[in-house]
Every structure is written in structure tokens, then in C-alpha cells.
Design brief:
Layout (H helix, E strand, L loop, with lengths): L1 H33 L6 H19 L2 H8 L4 H30 L1 H24 L19 H30 L6 H5 L5 H26 L2 H21 L13 H14 L16 H4 L7 E2 L32 H27 L2 H10 L1 E2 L1 E3 L2 E2 L6 H27 L7 H32 L10 E4 L4 H25 L5 H29 L17 H24 L6 E2 L25
Parallel strand pairs: 2-5
Antiparallel strand pairs: 1-6, 3-4
Keywords: Membrane, Transmembrane, Transmembrane helix
Protein name: Protein NRT1/ PTR FAMILY 3.1-like
GO molecular function, one term: transmembrane transporter activity
Length: 603
């Protein structure tokens, strides 16, 4: 009798303990649901707006600082900027791996922002102290170039900003998107596209920097010109940290590269194993994958079937729980690797696009410096501020895209985003080709006017040719960005596995990195082998160059790249996702997630 009462009491205590754990888990779930949302956007976007204002103010006109204040030749100066831009994009992969593996996106962004701030403070100090730059050279003839010490300070500043950007870029978009429901139901339930409005806010910050900061750099001085972005970057760190209690901070789920490596190693070990006829017999472990499949598990696909051998269960492995992941992989982890492999051809198309446009900003600033920039008899537009026309066209294009194109296209496609990411990117590729061709025609006209006024041999003379002739190419580049850049970023986020989104966003920046490095190589080869007397890209006098031929070369590369992209997009297979049932039972567990980037197919 006593033993029965003891067992009953023990059972009651167990039930109470189980009930208490359930209540605790329910409270934690409710707490997590309260985190994130629109209320976090002032802090996250405040950080990113200040960051974009700072980085744009720092980089937009720095080609002028290198050529006019440090007295560097055009091609080496342009190559330095392109190489460090490439380094910034390459370090994004390192930052993403740190965030996804152990640090999390919040802390990665915080520490990277501090490093970026140190870099900006360094170049601000170098601009203020006279010993850290060479004597002025207003004629741009026989100038004393920057010394080794002065260049070392410059390189240190650029290196720190590159390392800082590597932690910010791959994480901030993914971290902001983490604050919202990005599943099929969540996307369809919103009347706005997160990525469009994110890009719109960044465009406003860039526009402000191009109008305010560039004017100060050209008319007040580089101390204040670099100082304002440095102050803005400091404010961005404060804004981001203040909002910390409101953020939905997803826990890092371990190194994504290790998980991908485990699948490959396991598949190689089991290369002689036979696949079951029914894919449902492959190994699945929902509990093991719970931390990396919060929004739903990836559905088995028939592509790259040799990787499925990693999920074949042998006799020894059927009894171990959890299994040795270097000997047995789940279907979800295999599909993670398949998703990345499928994305790579589309991702690679962005490399040559960046190659084609990597140096255009530097060359256009130098073109603008030779043209009539007067708005009034006493006011001149700073050359680097011409980029505002590209930003204005991008901002206008984003609003028109969101308010007119998407609702119109949605009637026919039934896609929440109007058109797919791949279609959006393809339009961007085509518009970019047109923009480059327009650039070549304007350069031909600029040199013709210079020849008519006998100004070809005077690199500092103002050619009586309005700088507003450069506006059409900026306008077209801005429209191309609405389609290509936003579409590419959304594609990388949407089609990557959720546990690899920082890494996938880093791939976006890695494509920019590789494109910039290839662009530097291309410009160096063109400069070296296009002749001495009529070099396409001369060091000092652009009037005697053949910049239009460089633009023709760039256009040809982009045409070939567009053909490659169309072929890859035609054969691309979208990521299938099995979403969990909610409390009302929708969406059903058999629904394949085809959200705004993809379409609306269901299984």
C-alpha cells in the first residue's frame, strides 16, 4: 500500500514537473514571438543608414582624394580602390562564417562596426595632419606623389574599413529579415517587399552623403569631409546596440561549412552503397535538424542523387541516436548542400557584371572633372555628386516597381512579388548593357567638343560640354540596380537554407570581390597593352585616352554574360521547402514553399 502511494506521488511530481517545463517552454515561445517586428527597424535601419551614409561619404569621392591630394596617377589610384573594395567583399565570407558558426549576427555586426569606425578615424586623422599627405599640386604636372609612410597610413585605414565591412555586409540584411516572418504565408500577408524598402532606405542615405559630404570634401576640406562620416558611423553603433533588447536573435547553429563537409565526406564514404527506390527510406531526424530548420524542412529532390547516399542507413547506424554525422547525414542537410550547388551558376553571373562596372565610377568622376559643372555662375556640382542621379533613379524606380509593376504583374503571375527574382535579375543585366553603350557615346562626344576647342592637351581645362550629358548613363545604372542588385540579394537570401543565410549573403559580396579583382586585372592589362601614344586609359590626361573603347569591351563582356545567365536561369530549380503546420493547420505540411522570389506552385 505504501509503495503504491509512493509511486502515485512520484507520478504526480513527474506530471507537475512536465507541466512546469511545458509552461516554461510556452512562456519562452511567447517571449520570442514578441521580439522582432517593425519596432526593431528604427534601430537596425538607423544603424545601416548611418553606416551607408558613412561608407558612401568615405568612398564616393576618395578617387579625388587620391589623385588630387595624394597626387597618385589615375590607373593606380583606381586599382587601389577596386582592390580594397574587393577585399571588403571577400572578408564578408569570413564575417558570415563567424556569424553563422558561433558569434551570431548581432555581435558580429557590433564588433565589425567598431573596427570600421577605427579605419575611418585613421583616414580622418591622416587628412588633418599635413605630414601625412604630400604638397599640393594644382597643375597636376610633375607632382610629388605620396611617400611610403603616407601610403601606409592610407592602406591601414582601408584595411580596417575592409575588415569592418566584412562583418557588417553579410549580416545586416539577414539580421533585419530575421525580425520578420519570411515564410510563404508571411510574405504573401504583407503588402510590401522587405528588400525593396531596405534598398530604398539605403538609397536615401547614399543620396544624402553624395550631396552633403561630397560638397564638404570639395569645398570645405577633407578633414570635415571624412570627419562627418566618421561621426555618423559612431552614431550607427550606438543606435544598433540601444535596440538590443528588442531584437529576435537567432542562435548560431554551428559551422555551416562543417555541415556541408560532413555531407560530402559521408557521400564519398558510401559511394558504393545502393540507393533505396523510395526516398522516404533515407535518413531523417527532425529533432536533430530542429535548430537549422525553424521555418521548415527542405524536401528531397532528385538532383545530384549521388549525395543522397550520405543518408543511406546501414545496420550499425540504425541504432545510434544521435548518429555520427561524419558517417550519416539527414535529408535536410543534404538538401542544404544541393541548394548551394544549384545557386552557384546564377551567383557566378554576377562576377562579370561587377567586372564590367568595377572602374566606371572612378573614370566617370574624372570625366566630370573636365566638363562644365556650373548650375549657376557661382555654383559648381562636385564631380562625385553626379552619382545622385543614379540614386534618384533607383529610388524612383523602387517606388514605381513596388506600387505599379508588382500589382500589375501579380494579376497575371499570381506571384506575391509580381515577377520572380531570376526574371528581375535578367532585366537588370539587359539595362546595364544599354547604360554602358550610352557611356561610350557620351565619351566620344566629350572628346569631340574638346578637340573643337583645342583642349585635348590640357587635362585641367574645362571643356564647354555640360556635365549633365552624363546623367542618362547614371539614370540607366540606377534603374538596372532596381532590378539586378535587389533581385540578386533577394535571390541569395530566399534560395539559401535558413541556417546559411549569412553565408549566402556573403556569396553576394564574394561575387563583388571577385568581379573587382578581375576588373583590376582587366584595367591593368588594357592600360599596359593598349599603346603608349594613344593609351585607352592614360594616367593623367583622359582627353588623349580611348575610354570609349574600354566601354565597348565592357559591353561585349556583358552581352556574353547575359547569354550565360539566361541559360542558367532557364535550367534553375527552385528550393522546395516543407513548412510546418501552425495552430490552425495551415499551411499544410505537404505544401512546398514557393514564396515571392519563386512562384506559387504547391505539391
Amino acid at each position: 500500500m505504501g509503495r503504491e502511494m509512493e509511486m502515485e506521488s512520484s507520478s504526480v511530481r513527474a506530471d507537475d514537473a512536465e507541466k512546469g517545463m511545458a509552461e516554461k517552454q510556452e512562456m519562452e515561445t511567447k517571449k520570442e514571438r514578441k521580439l522582432g517586428g517593425v519596432k526593431t527597424m528604427p534601430f537596425i535601419l538607423g544603424n545601416e543608414i548611418c553606416d551607408r551614409f558613412a561608407s558612401t561619404g568615405f568612398h564616393a569621392n576618395i578617387i579625388t582624394y587620391l589623385t588630387q591630394d595624394l597626387n597618385m596617377p589615375l590607373v593606380p589610384a583606381s586599382n587601389i580602390l577596386t582592390n580594397f573594395a574587393a577585399t571588403s567583399s571577400f572578408t564578408a565570407l569570413i564575417g558570415a562564417l563567424i556569424a553563422d558558426s558561433f558569434a551570431g549576427r548581432f555581435w558580429t555586426i557590433t564588433f565589425a562596426s567598431i573596427i570600421y569606425e577605427l579605419g575611418m578615424a585613421t583616414i580622418t586623422i591622416s587628412a588633418i595632419i599635413p605630414r601625412l599627405h604630400p604638397p599640393p599640386c594644382p597643375t597636376q604636372l610633375n607632382c610629388i606623389q605620396a611617400s611610403t609612410t603616407q601610403l601606409t597610413v592610407l592602406y591601414l585605414a582601408l584595411l580596417l574599413t575592409s575588415l569592418g565591412a566584412g562583418g557588417i555586409r553579410p549580416c545586416v540584411v539577414a539580421f533585419a529579415a530575421d525580425q520578420f516572418d519570411m515564410t510563404k504565408v508571411g510574405v504573401a500577408g504583407r503588402t510590401w517587399n522587405f528588400f525593396n524598402w531596405y534598398y530604398f532606405c539605403m538609397g536615401l542615405a547614399t543620396l544624402t552623403a553624395l550631396t552633403v559630404v561630397v560638397y564638404i570634401q570639395d569645398n570645405v576640406g577633407w578633414g570635415w569631409g571624412f570627419g562627418l562620416p566618421t561621426i555618423a558611423m559612431a552614431l550607427s553603433v550606438v543606435a544598433f546596440v540601444v535596440g538590443s533588447p528588442l531584437y529576435n536573435k537567432l542562435k548560431p547553429s554551428g559551422s555551416p561549412l562543417v555541415r556541408l563537409a560532413q555531407v560530402v565526406v559521408t557521400a564519398v564514404k558510401k559511394r558504393k552503397a545502393s540507393l533505396p527506390e523510395d526516398p522516404k527510406l533515407l535518413y531523417r531526424n527532425h529533432k536533430l535538424d530542429a535548430a537549422i530548420a525553424i521555418q521548415g524542412r527542405l524536401v528531397h529532390t532528385n538532383q545530384f542523387k549521388w549525395l543522397d547516399k550520405a543518408a543511406v542507413i546501414t545496420t550499425d547506424e540504425s541504432t545510434s541516436d544521435p548518429p555520427n554525422l561524419w558517417r550519416l547525414a539527414t535529408v535536410h542537410r543534404i538538401e542544404e548542400l544541393k541548394s548551394i550547388i544549384r545557386m552557384l551558376p546564377i551567383w557566378a553571373a554576377g562576377i562579370l557584371l561587377v567586372t564590367a562596372s568595377s572602374h566606371q565610377h572612378s573614370f566617370t568622376v574624372q570625366q566630370a572633372r573636365t566638363m562644365n559643372r556650373h548650375l549657376t555662375p557661382t555654383f559648381e556640382i562636385p564631380p562625385a555628386s553626379l552619382s545622385i542621379f543614379g540614386i534618384l533613379s533607383m529610388l524612383t524606380g523602387l517606388v514605381l516597381y513596388e506600387r505599379l509593376l508588382v500589382p500589375f504583374a501579380r494579376r497575371f503571375t499570381k506571384n506575391p512579388s509580381g515577377i520572380t527574382c531570376l526574371q528581375r535579375m535578367g532585366v537588370g543585366f539587359a539595362i546595364n548593357i544599354l547604360a554602358t553603350l550610352v557611356s561610350s557615346l557620351i565619351e566620344i562626344r566629350r572628346k569631340k567638343v574638346a578637340a573643337e576647342h583645342n583642349l585635348l592637351d590640357d587635362p585641367t581645362a574645362t571643356i564647354p560640354f555640360s556635365v549633365f550629358w552624363l546623367v542618362p548613363q547614371f539614370w540607366l545604372h540606377g534603374i538596372a540596380e532596381v532590378f539586378m542588385s535587389v533581385g540578386h540579394l533577394e535571390f541569395m537570401y530566399d534560395q539559401s537554407p535558413e541556417s546559411l543565410r549569412s553565408t549566402a549573403t556573403a556569396l553576394y559580396w564574394l561575387a563583388i570581390s571577385m568581379g573587382n579583382y578581375v576588373g583590376t586585372l582587366m584595367v591593368s592589362l588594357v592600360h599596359k597593352y593598349s599603346g603608349k601614344e594613344h593609351n585607352w586609359l592614360p594616367d593623367r590626361n583622359l582627353n588623349r585616352g580611348r575610354l570609349e573603347r574600354y566601354y565597348w569591351l565592357v559591353s561585349g563582356i556583358q552581352v556574353l554574360n547575359l547569354v550565360y545567365y539566361v541559360v542558367c536561369a532557364w535550367f534553375y530549380t527552385y528550393k522546395p521547402l516543407e513548412e510546418e503546420k501552425d495552430d490552425e493547420g495551415e499551411p499544410s505540411s505537404s505544401t512546398l514553399s514557393k514564396d515571392g522570389c519563386q512562384g506559387t506552385k504547391t505539391a
